[in-house]
């Protein structure tokens, strides 16, 4: 099937992002640390041109640590301030306010020269669906002012939140782009839960995950299920289904439930820390590049 999700409200969201850019000083983009580049909306680089930029690499505990360090260097080289964190944990965000002040130092200095003291930094929080925007705001503010949910599409409209005397945040709905030119990108975005599961073929997606883990040489399939590197996908489904108890009446493996179990194990980190992409040396054929929408 084709992996794509661009409901009508996203067209409105894109229009509002363009309109709101003139109101803000800083763009705080949230991305999943397992998919730092392919899980970013390519529209944003053009929209945020000239703005201070921070990228939060959330769910860092689910990504391969050394690969995350490579991504930090990747974004630093592109003048985007990276910050790897656990969005659910307020202490993990303790270094973010100093980073915000550093990223906006030029704006703060301009205000000082104009005699403007203590004007709050206005930051827009954005990202694709279900990467933790509202979770981040609640953790950062120490409150539960925003509704959160483990599915895409929870935030429907823009919301301003006053964090403290230094920062105001504009929460925005998750935004994908109209067409994935590379369907592997669509599948990876579906794997991290940014496309509703009901809009995917989970058996196909689970088979893709098995192939991807082998390509990445991840030991998760062997460690959790005892599946060897050369095990055919249908046989792997049989092993996983029986180990997870995903069976129909009569003891036959239920492939749909098995696929759901495998994807859930990936999302919850039970297959180990897995980064779905890494930056290759600049200019090499494997280097992930910006994708035009």
Overview of this structure, please?
With 293 residues, the chain is an alpha/beta fold. The protein has two domains: 164 residues, Rossmann fold, CATH 3.40.50; 67 residues, Conserved Hypothetical Protein Ylqf, Chain: A, domain 2 (Orthogonal Bundle), CATH 1.10.1580.10. 38% of the residues lie in helices and 11% in strands. Helix 8 crosses helix 11 and helix 10 packs across helix 11. The longest helix is centred in the last third of the chain and has 14 residues. The two termini are 20 Å apart.
List keywords for this structure.
single chain; 293 residues; alpha/beta; Rossmann fold; Conserved Hypothetical Protein Ylqf, Chain: A, domain 2; 6-stranded mixed beta sheet; 11 helices; 6 strands; 38% helix; 11% strand; disordered C terminus
Structural class: alpha/beta
Strand order of the largest sheet: 3-2-1-4-6-5
Molecular shape: elongated
- Helix segment tally: 11
The count of DSSP E runs of length 2 or more, i.e. the number of strands, is 6
The value of Rg in angstroms is: 20 Å
Summarize, please.
This protein is α/β, with parallel strands linked by helices. The chain is built from eleven helices and six strands.
Set down the secondary structure blueprint.
Elements: H1 8-20, E1 26-32, H2 43-47, E2 52-58, H3 65-76, E3 81-84, H4 96-103, H5 105-113, E4 121-126, H6 133-141, E5 159-162, E6 167-171, H7 183-191, H8 202-215, H9 220-225, H10 233-244, H11 255-267
Parallel strand pairs: 1-2, 1-4, 2-3, 4-6
Antiparallel strand pairs: 5-6
Helix pairs in contact: 7-8, 8-11, 10-11
């Amino acid at each position: 099937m084709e992996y794509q999700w661009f409901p009508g409200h996203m067209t409105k969201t894109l229009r509002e992002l363009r309109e709101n850019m003139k109101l803000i000083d800083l763009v705080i983009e949230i991305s999943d640390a397992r998919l730092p580049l392919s899980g970013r909306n390519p529209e944003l680089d053009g929209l945020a041109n000239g703005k201070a930029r921070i990228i939060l690499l959330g769910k860092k505990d689910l990504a391969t640590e050394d690969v995350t360090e490579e991504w930090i260097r990747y974004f630093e080289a592109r003048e985007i301030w990276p910050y790897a964190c656990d969005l659910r944990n307020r202490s993990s965000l303790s270094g973010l306010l100093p980073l915000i002040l550093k990223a906006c130092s030029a704006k703060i200095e301009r205000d000082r020269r104009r005699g403007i003291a203590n004007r709050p930094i206005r930051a827009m929080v954005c990202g694709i669906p279900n990467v933790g925007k509202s979770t981040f705001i609640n953790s950062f503010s120490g409150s539960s002012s925003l509704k959160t949910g483990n599915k895409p599409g929870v935030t429907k409209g823009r919301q301003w939140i006053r964090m403290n005397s230094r920062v105001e945040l504009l929460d925005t709905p998750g935004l994908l782009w109209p067409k994935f030119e590379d369907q592997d990108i669509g599948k990876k975005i579906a794997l991290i839960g940014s496309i509703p599961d009901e809009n995917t073929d989970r058996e196909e997606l689970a088979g893709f995950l098995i192939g991807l883990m082998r390509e990445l040489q991840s030991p998760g399939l062997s460690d959790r299920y005892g599946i060897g590197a050369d095990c055919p996908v249908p046989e792997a489904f049989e092993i996983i289904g029986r180990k997870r108890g995903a069976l129909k009446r009569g003891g036959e493996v239920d492939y749909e439930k098995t696929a759901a179990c495998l994807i859930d194990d990936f999302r919850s980190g039970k297959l180990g820390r897995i980064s779905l992409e890494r930056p290759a040396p600049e200019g090499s054929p494997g280097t992930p590049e910006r994708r035009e929408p």
